[in-house]
Amino acid sequence: MIQKIKHLIGLDIKEEEYAYGNDPEHGYVSAQKIPDRWVKSTCGYCSVGCGMLLGVKGDRIVAVRGDEDHPVNEGDLCPKGLSEHHPLTSPDRAVSPLMKQPDGSFKAVDWDTAYGHMVDTIQSVQAKHGPQSFGVLSTGQLLTEEFYALGKLVQLGFGTTNYDGNTTLCMSSAVVGYKQSFGSDGPPGSYKGLATADVIFLIGANIADNHPILWHHIRKNPEYKLIVCDPRKTKTAMLADLFLPLKPRRDIDLLNGLIHLIIKNRKVDQNYIDNHTTGYEELCQHAAPFGLEVTALRTGLPEEKILETYEAIANGKKVFFGWTMGINHSTQGSDTVSLINTLALITGNIGRTGAAPMSITGQCNAMGSREFSFSSSPPGYRKFENETDRKELAELWNIDEGLMPTARGANYPEIIDGVLEGKIKALWVVATNPLVSFPDQARLKKALAKLEILIVQDGFHPTPTTQLADLVLPAAIWGEKDGCYTNSERRVSRANAAVPPPGLARSDFQICMDLAERLGKREWLFPGWTCSEDAFEEIRQVSKGRLCDYSGITIEKMGQGGIQWPCNAANPEGADSLYTDGVFKTDDGKARLLFTVSEELPEDVDNSYRLILNTGRTVEHWHTGTKTRNVALLNKLAPEAWVEVNPATATYFGITPHDRVSLVSRRGRVDDLLVRIAETIHPDHVFMPFHFAEKCINELTVAAFDPKSGEPNYKQCAVRLERFDR
Length: 726
Ligand code: SF4
Description:
The relative contact order is 0.16. It is built from 27 helices and 28 strands. The protein folds into 4 domains: 2-89, ADC-like domains (N-terminal domain of TfIIb, Single Sheet), CATH 2.20.25.90; 98-170 and 365-482 and 500-528, Rossmann fold, CATH 3.40.50.740; 173-360 and 588-592, Dimethylsulfoxide Reductase, domain 2, CATH 3.40.228.10; 611-723, Barwin-like endoglucanases. It starts with a helix and ends with a strand. By secondary structure, the chain is α/β, with parallel strands linked by helices. Mean pLDDT is 93; it is low at 1-27. A 7-stranded mixed beta sheet has the order 7-6-18-17-16-8-9, sandwiched between helices. A 6-stranded mixed barrel has the order 23-27-24-26-25-28. Bound molecules: iron/sulfur cluster. Iron/sulfur cluster is lined by residues 43, 45-46, 48-50, 73, 77-78, 80-81, 211-213.
């Protein structure tokens, strides 16, 4: 077995390092690394939310294995999950608060000094320029209890609404799309749908790379048709029964064409439309011009493939509509999400297991952030502008209602704009790395240079962002702290601390408590709280009666494979589908049949920049690589960034296999890139993954955002290819 693995992944594994561990049923365990105990937890990378067991020896996690009892993965894990313990002992862990010195070096300081400097500077900036001159950028990686504490601290403790998460860079269009269609955020479906739908329609979703364990559920489906719609022939597309290689941003045209055919051929679920939706007449008028010929022309797809897709959806008894960043990463992401919802609604594919529109989230706890972070909305899917919601929260929190914010503050790109314009003078970045992940890096760097103070709280240092910081706060990461994550299917699972954090690092929860103490507001914000369980108890109360109802969730239930909200007296074991009664969270209880038309891409190609750059991920790495680039196994599997180029394009630019190339856009260039010549990419496009800080794709991307959600248009910008001679 070991030889086979070595052969497959080309690793230099010393045979004598391996032996059967104390648990031969689960395979090989290094003889020197046999755990003393196993701790149940949940993966802290992606939103699939796999259950796992952490093997602990002394104060180190020495092994990870899949939890056979967890319904999400039943023992399976992807390469990132299997090696998740390695980053904990990386030499790049942040282990002490650090203050930038006048000569640019960092000096280790104690927590008291760090908190004092942070709070004094923020308060002095706010006294001079107003409370909104302080901004906060958070993440989708914290535990829900940490999001909840951070939200209260920022909105009420520091009194600024200029607060958002990096979830805006991946999921905010899904949130807005759901709110527009259903009156609330909340993915209606679940993974059971993948195992039971007769048609699985994946649009802009490369789950084989980005959510690999979802195949675990598709694999269980006895009979299904998988349709994959993507401009690139991804690994997921290669597994499809029908692949639709459409033009970039023409997903809207395809959806309009499918809606047209369904209406024209009377394949709609008229009963569902009449009883549970509004806007059907307007939708019919809108869809009228999108006949088969028009759709084929606009999408670049053959008519037979469009018809085959239409027939599958029209005749499917249970259709699962799944999407990820291919839809969200667009200036029209929010409206595209609503259009997918419309297609699901008119065919009656909602409210039943297997029949649902469902966003597949990116980060492990982007959902927890959406539910309780108090950034884009107040906790429990409430609305800032709703007086009843504000009153309810103020009462629950025992605070003056007048202190509740009445509108959302700046979103992520607006915060960067605010910094660039000099309106935001102090910025606190928590567990995210914009110096790799934010589009148009030149513009971002120009903005950050204007700050009076940049505070970066992270588990790792140095990162490109901590290096720019005036103050670095060292944070505990997955495996070192307790709380819960919500996955893409609304399943709330327990993540447990198995080992202590290194050096002086503290959990984000503890840092929030300490800062509240420093502000003199700890008891007011967090009455009687001593640990994250106290925050969870408050979350249960605050969510009671809301769509994301946690009131019936207990720590015991979470620890037994998680539980899907809403979980309450009516649903003590949680719920697999939302909107089973056809009643939505709009004023009249009906879903909105919304539609849109495709617009031009935010940036044109021309003779100088003739290719469209598509961006995405690879299974071996995670986001900006602060965790996975330190894992030898993952780095050996995917050691550097590459550009995927069609053979015809390579010939045109005089590129041959093993050449190095540069990609150049109107904003910047990335040199010395490995080229992969492959038929999987269209001749007019190139593809590059975004995990590699030293080959940062966001030097090239365009600062164009969905005006409704603030989500960046990462997927298309104009570039040219040049040979790079070392
Ligand atoms: Fe973790 Fe996602 Fe891999 Fe599961 S699929 S092990 S949640 S990274």
